[in-house]
Structure prediction request, 138 residues.
Amino acid sequence: MAGKLRLVVVTPEGKTFDSDVEQVVMPGVEGQLGILPGHVPLLTAIQPGELDLKAGSRGDELAVGGGFAEVTGDRVTILTDMAVKPEDIDEHAVEKALQSAQQALLEKKAGPEAEALMAMIQRSTVQLNLKRKRRTQI
Prediction:
């Protein structure tokens, strides 16, 4: 399997992605992190953003939430609270959720509820950005 990585993306709902890819670019907490076959072992946190995958001449993307990534040999495992393909994003529903979270955050300035609302805002924003980017590329 030279030149390939096995990418597995797992959310609380189950396995979202499990396939061979040639390259993974993930949103690390200190910037984008590119993984190629033969990468040194690594355990790192990821933040909400776009997970870019390259398999042959095809490139795919997933909107991911926060979590962790482990690189071992030619395998990348990502544990995240969200992983959504662009075609599975309901733009109108996400916009409504974003507006509701923003409104609720105005009332809750601190504490665990405010942190949960901020996380929801980040995940919604990532999904909208990916959906709109994909729409302009078509």
Observations:
- The helical segments are 91-107, 112-137.
